[in-house]
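We emphasize that the prediction below concerns an isolated chain of 372 residues; any contacts that depend on oligomerization or on bound cofactors are therefore not represented. The input was used exactly as deposited, without trimming of termini.
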Amino acid sequence: MKTEKDNIGPEYVVKIYDPKINMRAFLVIDNTKLGPGKGGVRMTPDVSEEEVFRLARAMTFKNALAGLPFGGAKAGIVWPPSGQSGQSRTLSKKGQKALKKKFVQNFARAIKPFLISKYIAGPDINTGEREMRWFVEAARDKKSATGKPAELGGLPHELGSTGFGVAEAARIAAKIRGLNIKDASVAIDGFGNVGSFAFKHLRAMGARIIAVADRHGAIYNDRGLNENDIKKVKFCGKSLEECEKGRPISRKSFFALKIDILIPASVTDVINDTNKKSIKAKIIVEGANIPMRENIEEELWRRGVLIVPDIIANAGGVISSYSEYKGYNAEKMFKLVKEKVGGGVDLVLKTSIRRKISPRKAAMEIALKKLV
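Result of the prediction step, given as a token string:
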């Protein structure tokens, strides 16, 4: 798909192909009016220019809404998972790691003219502290990425700032909807960095997480899943459905659960035309970036679902990046996440209710005032 330009951006769309290792990648720098474009590097088998542009645009609004001196950008590297397509099929784990390092570092070198002044990298799906170390090594500049190991001056993604912010967003949304987060029923799709930390912090608030899903299936327990069960699931080396901690249910049944809060924290467009009509959640807190298209979001809102858009719900990650950029410690970072995400959710939802417009429209209006 050709990326369409409008009065916001994108400023640059960079396509990279390295024939030596068969690497394809994209960098979209959407808007740098407020500062250098900030957004993570996603490594998935089907990442596309369109997806990267949509993510970059979300980052433009997310950074403006959070009041950060960053613009919007995103990067994507087409990365086949172990045992699947291309040259990775016959590689050992060691070989996979070596090839992934080549992909990350060749990508960093290819986009070096844009780094720091126009783009600062960070973690995303299939990239974390390790990959950001590789990135800054290749770029030869510690300022070229955030989410690095602590010894490189980083506040690692593994601290769970995004999931902490998602939990805080859920608490504020529940309060506005007239629900007490304590004992509220919650379902989380995706149990990576965002989902796992959202689980941890919501349980600490007293919420009852009754279902967790991965790409294969889901587990369900109406009394609530505990952390020990989830840890066993996460590290058993199988899908959630196979681990059988709780009652296995299908992904179709997962999205149809009658619950207070649904948190999509996995991949793009996980809520779509195939499952939108079955959703019965009172609140959706978008832990993932662009978990549904805007028309579906609008449709659910008109049905009475209170939606906290990704551009504020999962802003904890980029707020952590800003904290690292400023040299703050973890304690100050978490305080800033709570303040900015909590305040942002409160403002967006109350604006939405007062003006009778969707939370997405309210959030974008607030952000546009800072951009224009």
